[in-house]
Here is the input.
Amino acid sequence: MTYKPAHIELRDITHAYQTEAGPLPVLDHLSIKMEEGSFTAVVGPSGCGKSTLTRLIAGLMRPDEGQVWLGGKMVTSPRPTVGMAFQNPVLLEWRTILRNVMLPLEIVGKRMSRTAQEDRARELLSLVGLEGFEDKRPSELSGGMRQRASLCRAIVHRPEVLILDEPFGALDAFTREDLWQTMARLRLEEKFTAVLITHDLRESVFLADNVVVLSGRPATSQFVLPNTLPTNRTLEDLYSQPATDMLAILRHQIQVAQGRAPADDAKATA
Amino acid sequence: MNTLRKLAAPITAIILFLLGWEWLVWVNGWPTYKMAAPSDLWPAFWKFRWLFLEYGWQTLWRTVAGLAIAIVFGVAVGMVMGFSRTVRDGLYPLLVGFNAIPKATVVPILALMFVGQHDLNTILIAFMISFFPIAVSVSIGLSTLEPEYRDILRSLGASQLTVFWKIALPKTLPEFFGALKVSVTLAFIGTNLMEIISPHGRGLGALFDSGKINSDYPLMFAVLIALALLGIVLYYIVVALEKTFAGWAERSPT
Here is the structure.
């Protein structure tokens, strides 16, 4: 058997923020491995350092201790092979939807011709159901549509790593489910290793191959749950017995992380 | 219909205002040294029409020059303050203090400092009085930029300068134009302050002063009207620029 390095690897990361009241530890010897092309969801109690994690993977911050490795290289600074989407779609009001999606290509797609850039953006927009909205302004779109455009912008430059920081958190329940399906479709069409930060356990079960539960602050990887659902999932699968079992386990683990339930006898690890 | 309404409404308002003014003077039987009526102004305008053109032009170009310096300086200071917390904390009291000084007191100081250089003095006052709102608005616009806006480009390895050009600058434009509308009026006040106070001045302010010295009251009022007209023109030039460069910030009613 040949050893295949994980595409994203967090090695023993410890990090604290310096505040006026002294250091505030957020991550404590955190280690996570993600295979190439995998989809990992990270869940955990509020304020456990999930967003810090995204900034570390993106190279926007460096950890106090430990290392982040992307594709066999240590991350020391931001790199163009990363795409990010946030809870706030942060579209630029003065640009049309099409030009918003093309924004990353202006930084990293210099070798692409202008027409190729535009074709690429249009292709993605039609993939997420925004055909016909290319020339609209962000303010003319609904919250769900803006988030779709934001997803397109995050992957337009074909990043190796897609970082999603609660991108569906501010949407209503039905729109959110629509967006989950859009995300699943994007994953079939595009190649990337995805990290999804979320508060929604059903979301993590629907989208991810592995769900990592972080402990309370300072956070460490408390539990990893491999997804047992079929790869080609439908929303109905979320109401099947395996899904219900997984949700129950995750719910229990969150309560452990919050300190509301005792840790299990069989402390599962991956 | 819409354009007609847009034009007709302000014109009607102006006509009503002038009629009301005329009526007020007529009903009270005020002499011109108390208050000149609009009908007294036209002869004053006509008599000094060439002076009005020449001096009006002088007032205009000095105001615009002072404003231009204020924009360059204000944007530069605003940028530095917007990007660095230390600089912001350091400069704020200084700027506020400077802004609090009544500019009328600076006029004699400048006039002494650059004796006889009337153009320079006037432009300097226009600049000093008008850069503050610009600096503050740009610094607030930049410092309140949500971190995610930076992150979408920074995560791709873009430089601070790229983030500034592509995101921070355009996002600050609506605030900038809001401040510019205040500044354009302020610069105008500054120009006239110097023109009125400075001896041997030129420009509409000096014309006002000579009206005062010669007890030509209709002339004084005519200058005020001319100043108002120039102010309106400058203001709407800024509005037109705003529509061109930051029109996206105005949401169409749906």
Observations:
- The first helix of chain B runs from residue 2 to 28.
- Residues 83 and 143 of chain B are 6 Å apart (CA to CA).
